[in-house]
From TrEMBL, chain A:
Biased composition (Polar residues): 594-603
Compartmental location: Cell junction, Tight junction; Cytoplasm; Membrane
Rho-GAP domain sequence ranges: 255-445
Keyword Transcription: no
Role noted for this protein: Rho GTPase-activating protein involved in the maintenance of tight junction by regulating the activity of CDC42, thereby playing a central role in apical polarity of epithelial cells. Specifically acts as a GTPase activator for the CDC42 GTPase by converting it to an inactive GDP-bound state. The complex formed with AMOT acts by regulating the uptake of polarity proteins at tight junctions, possibly by deciding whether tight junction transmembrane proteins are recycled back to the plasma membrane or sent elsewhere.
PROSITE patterns per the UniProt record, alphabetical: BAR (PS51021), RHOGAP (PS50238)
Protein name: Rho GTPase-activating protein 17
Oligomeric form and interacting partners: Component of a complex whose core is composed of ARHGAP17, AMOT, PALS1, PATJ and PARD3/PAR3. Interacts with NHERF1, FNBP1, TRIP10, CAPZA (CAPZA1, CAPZA2 or CAPZA3), CAPZB, CD2AP and SH3KBP1/CIN85.
Segments forming domain BAR: 14-249
Pfam family, one: RhoGAP
Molecular function, one GO term: GTPase activator activity
UniProtKB/TrEMBL annotation, chain B:
Coiled coil (UniProt feature): 170-197
Residue span, Rho-GAP domain: 256-446
Its membrane topology: Peripheral membrane protein
Main location: other
Subcellular location: Cell junction, Tight junction; Cytoplasm; Membrane
SMART domains noted in UniProt: BAR (SM00721), RhoGAP (SM00324)
Described purpose of this protein according to its UniProt entry: Rho GTPase-activating protein involved in the maintenance of tight junction by regulating the activity of CDC42, thereby playing a central role in apical polarity of epithelial cells. Specifically acts as a GTPase activator for the CDC42 GTPase by converting it to an inactive GDP-bound state. The complex formed with AMOT acts by regulating the uptake of polarity proteins at tight junctions, possibly by deciding whether tight junction transmembrane proteins are recycled back to the plasma membrane or sent elsewhere.
Organism of this sequence: Danio rerio (Zebrafish)
Family matches, as PANTHER family: 3BP-1 RELATED RHOGAP, RHO GTPASE-ACTIVATING PROTEIN 17
Descriptive protein name: Rho GTPase-activating protein 17
Region annotation (Disordered) ranges: 472-507
Known partners and oligomeric status: Component of a complex whose core is composed of ARHGAP17, AMOT, PALS1, PATJ and PARD3/PAR3. Interacts with NHERF1, FNBP1, TRIP10, CAPZA (CAPZA1, CAPZA2 or CAPZA3), CAPZB, CD2AP and SH3KBP1/CIN85.
Length: 847, 536
């Protein structure tokens, strides 16, 4: 209490200036003192704010802190999510990998924060809350000691003054001594405290660099943290990105062609193949295909299903317009047209070439410049469109119509849409490009196309079966389709079987041939009922083939239907004989060739009949004459093939061929009327039957169909070989070779080539049967070839051919008259068939 | 509407008990996709929620607002304020300024990163989990209702057709049947359209799985980019802040390697060595037992701290020679490597073992000459001072031998010192013999005089009181000439010895002593002049 009193009194005296104050600290120490407070405040604030920057809980150990970090919670959520979605899911894989990465990032963050706390936060806190406060505390202690010293000294001085004037000197002296001791003691304490304080202050000042270093360390720690996190992420990213890229299931619509093909390891884009296969199955006879718009919801659904790569596309088979719409959308939504932006100008330039032949050549050159993938898909598509155009009489989609509705989806300018006029002009050009390419598809792309390139698309049950079995066929088709995509063996297995059946047909040919003449005599008796019976026969043929394929039990019914067909054949033979009697020997032989073309279709029917007739002996005798005639007729298809090899000149001649083919088309109806109604009924039967079989049979249809057209154009085609050499030379020098003069001089060589090409045809499946029939015609041809006097003989032969042609035309005229009278009935029957199809569609829709 | 609801419930009940058939409109793959939808929705929702918690900024705010609120930004502001308080000239201030700026940039990068995450990942995930998938599921439920409607209508139609033949009112029944047929057809159409829509959406969802999975790749890429940019930002600042740190000259001298200290301070002789020598030259040469008598611990600690602090105010230490000597000894002992270096230790010992005195001296000279430049310079400075001290050993009692005993172990020691007490003793013996010889023959080892005031920053303080003025005046004149310095030094030595004697004899006050010194100095000067004249 006394000490406290003394301090207060001294402080008061100093305040009023009555007592001197001892200043114990030097100027630099005073400056350091002021600085310490600033550093304390600043360090405190920095520490507080830095602590807020941390995401973990301060003071906790590594494990606890790690668990509490938000990144760890995120990591856990991702890994849980990955487990829920499963490993086979891409999202699941990504989440698992990402979750693991986040967990490691959390670990890095935890270590980073632990490091900052230990190296920076704790030292800063120590400085702000302990070191500096301790020094300040000593400072206050020193102030007190100074007061004590000043107070003691004042009292001592006062005592010494009073000694002089004091009466009791002895006592005062003793008191003074006592006070002196107090002063000395106070001074010692003060000095010690001052020394300690000074040392601490000097130490603080000299450590400024250390304190400043904390901020450098903070940045270094942060840099290290980011560096480690970056390293971690960069080690994870390549892996997770590889997983992402390896995922092949991505939308096809709107994706670049090359990218889609690469990812799915295909050569033909999935949507193109899928749509083409479905259309080949159920859309080839659909009127206005590609022109009529599909229902919006169906189209959207199909596109989504194709994007999803689902294997369940059965429900879309019944909606060809939706499928066609999807195909158009895919082509239009490609980032770059199938025919490419960079060749756009070339395409337009080629289409502007005035000369038809040169234009085709220019288009061919441009087409050849397409990138590999674009070219392969374009070829696939054009071949399909050409096939579609072949049935334009049914579906109304001629090459021109197809070009109009599909052209703008295959080629457009980059700046399309900028001007309506430009768009219109572009569209016109594109149509003029696509039209001829479709018409001359075989010239642009000679080889045949196996549309089922991936082997994943199988045919659903034929519509006719739906009529008989509404429910079972669906299940059956579903089962079959599920099995087929799973294994390629299925289709392969089917092929051998069909081959064996063909062999059986060939085996039966000789035997049936023997019985043909007899039945020919009996045929006149059936001529009157031919029209209605023929129709029934055709239908029977179809059902027979189908039943044989799927339900052998119904063979009996087929047999009954086949008998009328046989009668029809006999009637045709009778007509042929009459024609023969009307012409000379040479003319008659050639007329047989021309007359044989229509019967080719009959032979097809006969083939199916044979299949069904396997059991009854009487029925089997009927088809044999057809087989014989098949042998006779088959030489006809051979000539067109040698015409294909020379690509350039065929390009020049396509137009003439078309003109000539026009005439043959007018002739072709006449032969059919000759056979009364059977040809008309038979051809649909064959077409449908082949449709039901493999696509390859579709291709086999082409030769017979083309046969009627080939005989007339054969002369000009065959004339090309000799002049080709000269013409090729001319073309190299002059672009315009003469065509007209060549025909007259070529007839004789034609005869020669007719023989030579036929042997080369054997490789083809159907040509396998050619060798057997050939012995018959070859002997006849050989006598004409050997004649040494070629010039006069050739002259006479050519005249004969011309006369034969004219006679054929005359007979054609006659047949046309007959056909016209009968056409109305045929028309009536066809609509009935279509109606049935419509009903079937309706029922399937309902199902 | 009530009727429709009733019809639906009835149909559902019938289907439950198996009395009515149920139309399954979705294919197997669509059902699979439907189940997957829910899983993806849940997972996306959870991840979105956790990811939001990882962000430090406020979700939904724009870049600028988010930037201001980030903890790093607040730290940056705190540092900037600290700079204002401490001042730019302070090293801490400079560091905080640069660091604060760096933290600001980091905060900016983080705000950019979080905004990007929110836009590219969080929003799409939220859209998927809360909007897209729920919409599909909603359509799915709607489709289920339409299927019920269709099944119900079909059931009623079939029932009507069955009752038609047996009905008495054929006309009315026919009309009813037609109406029911229309209802059924309408229901079927609506069902088909809805089914197509649902199927399209589900297929679309399934085909976008790759896209959804990509969000997680984007997250890692965004994080990598963030760390990359943050690293670049810091790495652009670090060289600057580190160079600022390195440029700072004021660093503790005690415990720092000699070369480092000299390099940083741009000196040739270490500051503590020069400071202590200068102070001892001023007031310590007559002090008995200098270097032997230990100083007060608090004084010594204070002086060492002051020397570390490079303060220029060392006046108070002039009056305490023992503290100064103690500081010098501490400095030498606290060097990471002895002044006479570790690598020459063996050579020093071998030289000291030579029996012939002259050869021994020569060997020591050779080893001394091998010292690194900086060590050699400081060793020479120190030895010259110690030699001067020894010259007055009759007063301070510090002979070369005594100096070697107390100071030797601070100049040379083995790396393995302390491993064995015996070895330490042996080492000490050798070192003492080395130092003693070198001090005794300082003039031979280091010819030429040494100007101890190499940095010129040490001035002599004046005496307290009135005499301070006189001495101050005298001292100010003396630095002007070397000759006068030497003579003054000699005079001082003589004068100082006498005043101290008087002090002891008289035991009078300081003031009295001062006066005595002044009067005697005049007399002594007269005497000294006489001998010089005599000599001439």
């Amino acid at each position: 209490m006394k000490k406290q009193f003394n301090r207060m009194r001294q402080l008061a005296n100093q305040t009023v200036g009555r007592a001197e104050k001892t200043e114990v600290l030097s100027d630099d120490l005073l400056q350091i003192e002021r600085r310490m407070e600033l550093v304390r405040v600043v360090s405190h604030n920095t520490h507080k704010k830095m602590a807020v920057c941390l995401q973990g809980q301060i003071g906790t150990d590594a494990e606890k802190r790690h668990k509490k970090l938000p990144l760890t919670a995120l990591s856990q959520a991702m890994q849980d999510g990955g487990n829920q979605l499963g490993e086979e899911s891409l999202i699941g894989k990504m989440m698992e990998m990402c979750g693991d990465a986040e967990n490691r990032l959390a670990s890095e963050l935890m270590q980073h924060e632990m490091n900052i706390e230990k190296e920076i936060l704790d030292p800063l806190n120590q400085l702000a809350e302990f070191d500096i406060p301790n020094i300040l505390k000593q400072r206050r202690q020193l102030a007190k000691l100074v007061l004590d010293y000043d107070s003691a000294r004042a009292r001592w001085l006062q005592a010494t003054k009073s000694i002089i004037s004091g009466t009791n000197t002895q006592a005062l002296t003793a008191k003074a001594d006592s006070l002196k001791e107090e002063v000395d003691e106070a001074m010692n304490k003060m000095e010690l405290c001052k020394d300690q304080l000074s040392a601490d202050m000097y130490n603080f000042f000299s450590k400024e660099a250390d304190y400043a270093r904390y901020y450098v360390m903070l940045l270094e720690a942060q840099a290290d943290y980011h560096r480690k996190s970056l390293t971690l992420l960069e080690s994870v990213l390549p892996n997770i990105q590889a997983q992402q890229d390896s995922w092949s299931e991505k939308p096809a619509f709107g994706t670049a062609l090359d990218e889609h093909l690469k990812r799915s390891s295909r050569e033909i884009a999935l949507p193109i193949e899928a749509c083409v296969m479905m259309l080949l199955e159920t859309g080839m006879k659909e009127e206005g295909l590609f022109r009529i718009a599909a229902g919006a919801s169906k189209l959207k659904k199909l596109k989504a299903a194709l994007d999803c790569s689902t294997s369940q596309l059965e429900e879309f088979y019944s909606d060809p317009h939706a499928v066609a719409g999807a195909l158009k959308s895919y082509l239009r939504e490609l980032p770059e047209p199938l025919m490419t932006y960079q060749l756009y100008d070339e395409w337009i330039q080629a289409s502007n070439v005035p000369d038809p032949d040169k234009r085709l050549q220019a288009l061919w050159v441009t087409c050849d410049q397409l990138p590999k993938n674009n070219k392969a898909n374009f070829r696939y598509l054009v071949k399909f469109l050409a096939k579609l155009a072949q049935e334009s009489d049914v579906n109304k989609m001629t090459p021109s119509n197809i070009a109009i509705v599909l052209g703008p989806n295959l080629l457009w300018a980059k700046t399309e849409g900028s001007l309506a006029e430009m768009a219109a002009a572009t569209s016109v050009h594109v149509v003029t490009i696509i039209d001829p390419i479709i018409q001359h598809a075989d010239w642009f792309f000679p080889e045949d196309v196996d549309f089922n390139v991936s082997g994943m698309f199988s045919m659903p049950a034929p519509l006719p079966n739906n009529v008989n079995h509404l429910t079972p066929p669906d299940y059956d088709s579903g089962t079959i389709e599920r099995k087929r995509p799973g294994s390629m063996v299925g289709p392969d297995g089917d092929m051998p079987r069909r081959d064996s059946s063909a062999n059986k047909l060939m085996d039966h040919n000789p035997r049936r041939g023997n019985t043909v003449p007899r039945k020919q005599h009996a045929s006149p008796a059936f001529q009157p009922p031919l029209p209605p019976v023929e129709a029934a026969g055709g239908a029977g043929g179809q059902s027979t083939a189908e039943l044989l394929l799927q339900q052998p039990a119904q063979v009996g019914l087929g047999l009954e239907n086949c008998q009328p067909g046989v009668a029809l054949g006999m009637a045709a033979l009778a007509a042929a004989q009459q024609l023969l009697a009307q012409h000379t020997e040479e003319i008659s032989s050639k007329s047989r060739d021309s007359a044989s073309t229509p019967p080719a279709q009959r032979n097809g029917t006969g083939g199916s009949g044979q299949l069904s007739v396997g059991t009854p002996v009487a029925g089997s005798t009927g088809p044999s004459p057809h087989m014989t005639r098949r042998g006779t007729k088959k030489p006809a298809p051979a000539p067109p093939k040698p015409a294909n090899p020379p690509p350039i000149q065929p390009a020049n001649q396509p137009v003439p061929q078309q003109t000539q083919s026009g005439t043959p088309q007018s002739f072709s109806p006449s032969p059919r009327p000759l056979s009364s109604y059977s040809p008309t009924n038979l051809s649909p039967t064959q077409t449908q039957a082949q449709t039901n079989t493999t696509p390859r049979r579709h291709s086999s249809n082409q030769p017979p169909i083309q046969a009627p057209n080939h005989p007339p154009p054969q002369p000009p085609t065959q004339t090309t070989p000799p002049p080709q050499t000269g013409m090729l030379g001319d073309q190299a020098e002059d672009p315009s070779p003469p065509h007209t003069p060549t025909p007259p001089s070529t007839p004789p060589p034609t005869a020669v080539f007719q023989d030579s090409p036929s042997p080369t045809a054997p490789p083809v499946f159907q040509s396998g049967s050619l060798p057997r029939p050939r012995p018959v015609p070859k002997p006849r041809n050989r006598p004409t070839v050997p004649p040494p006097p070629q010039p006069p003989a050739i002259g006479s032969d050519s005249n004969g051919i011309c006369s034969a042609a004219f006679k054929t035309m005359e007979s054609g005229m006659t047949f046309k008259a007959v056909g016209r009278a009968l056409i109305p009935d045929i028309a009536i029957e066809k609509p009935v068939t279509h109606l049935k199809d419509a009903d079937l569609d309706t029922e399937s829709t309902v199902l | 509407m009530m009727k429709k609801q009733f019809n639906r419930m009835k149909q559902l009940a019938n289907q439950t008990v198996g009395r009515a058939e149920k139309t399954e409109v979705l294919s197997d793959d669509l059902l699979l996709i439907e189940r997957r939808l829910e899983n993806v929705r849940l997972v996306s929702h959870n991840v979105h929620k956790k990811m939001v918690m990882c962000l430090q900024g406020n979700v939904g705010t724009d870049a600028e607002k988010r930037h201001k609120k980030l903890p790093l930004m607040i730290l940056s502001q705190s540092m900037v304020e600290g700079v204002a308080q401490l001042g730019e000239e302070s090293l801490i201030g400079k560091m905080m300024d640069i660091c604060g700026d760096a933290e600001n940039k980091l905060a900016f990068e983080q705000s950019q990163h979080e905004v990007l995450l929110e836009k590219d990942i969080l929003d799409p995930l939220n859209q998927l989990a809360e909007v897209d998938i729920p919409n599909i599921q909603k359509q799915r439920r709607h489709l289920a209702k339409l299927v019920l409607d269709y099944d119900s209508a079909k059931g009623r139609y079939h029932q009507a057709t069955k009752s038609f033949p047996s009905a008495t009112n054929a006309q009315a029944m026919a009309a009813k049947v037609d109406m029911l047929k229309e209802e059924m057809d309408e229901a079927q159409n609506r069902m088909e359209i809805c089914k197509d829509q649902v199927a399209a959406d589900m297929y679309s969802f399934a085909s976008k799985e790759g896209e959804y999975a990509r969000y997680y790749v984007l997250l890692l890429e965004a994080q990598a980019e963030y760390h990359r940019r943050a690293l670049a930002s810091i790495e652009s600042v670090l060289p600057n802040i580190q160079s600022q740190q390195d440029k700072w000259m004021e660093k503790p001298a005690f415990g720092t390697a000699l070369e480092e200290h000299l390099k940083r301070t741009g000196r040739e002789v270490a500051l503590p060595i020069e400071a202590c020598v200068m102070m001892l030259l001023e007031t310590g040469m007559q002090e008995e037992g200098l270097f032997r008598i230990a100083a007060g611990a608090s004084k010594l600690k204070k002086l060492k701290a002051a020397l570390d602090c490079s303060t220029s105010q060392l006046e108070e230490f002039y009056s305490d020679p023992h503290a100064v000597a103690g500081a010098l000894k501490s400095y030498l002992r606290e060097l990471p490597e002895p002044l006479m270096s570790y690598q020459l230790y063996e050579e020093w010992i071998q030289a000291s073992n030579i029996s012939d005195p002259d050869k021994r001296l020569q060997a020591l000279w050779v080893v001394c000459d091998m010292l690194p430049k900086a060590n050699k310079t400081n060793f020479r400075y120190l030895v010259k001072f110690l030699a001067k001290l020894a010259l007055e050993s009759d007063v301070n009692k510090m002979t070369a031998s005594n100096i070697a005993i107390v100071l030797g172990p601070n100049l040379l020691w083995a790396k393995t010192e302390g491993s064995l007490a015996e070895m330490a003793a042996t080492t000490s013996v050798h070192v003492v013999s080395i130092i003693e010889l070198i001090i005794n023959h300082a003039g031979w080892f280091f010819p030429g005089d040494v100007d101890f005031n190499v940095s010129g920053v040490f001035a002599m303080p004046g005496c307290p009181g009135t005499p301070d003025v006189e001495y101050g005046t005298i001292e100010r004149r003396r630095p002007g000439s070397q000759g006068s310095l030497d003579s003054d030094t000699a005079r001082k030595d003589r004068y100082r010895s006498h005043p101290r004697v008087h002090k002891h004899d008289s035991n009078s006050t300081v003031v009295s002593a001062s006066y005595v010194v002044a009067s005697e100095s005049v007399t002594v000067k007269a005497d000294s002049l006489s001998p010089q004249l005599g000599a001439v």
